[in-house]
Amino acid sequence: MLKMIEVIGISPIGFSDAVKKAVDETVKAGKKIHFFETVEQRGTVSEGKIKEFQVKIRIAVDMKTETDAPLHAKEGSHVCPTCGQHSGPDGHMCYPVSKEDKTCDWCGNVIPDERHLCDGKLKELTYICNSCGRTAVKAEYLCNPAIIK
After folding, report:
1. Fewest CB atoms within 10 Å of the CB: 7, 117, 134, 149?
2. Which domains are present in the chain?
3. With a cut of 50, which residues of the chain have pLDDT below it?
4. pTM of full prediction above 0.85
């Protein structure tokens, strides 16, 4: 039996290198891969030049392998599959952990994905993650935050 996991590969060289790095890291983590599909491609630009290529892929891995690492390093702590950082029980912007759908305090819409940002929040974005490229209003929501200038 297989399960699908999402992984984000990052490379300064190109999209195909980012995919290769994501697959290599997944294999290095002890997963037996059967196939993958590309979900998203994006990149970061700094001073008018491409700085980084990012690819989100879904990888089909064996449902259970002997080398599967637990998602919880300790009670209430999660290890992000994207950046490897420990986060609280709600995860962080790389890999949020949803317990139930919530309603946005700003726009009133149901939030099926913890990465929701409505128009009101876009004006408050202050930080960008140097690892995964996500943006946030607070540094603690990101694994490797930098202030947006």
Report:
1. 149
2. 2-62 (3.30.1660.10), 78-147 (no CATH)
3. 66-75
4. no
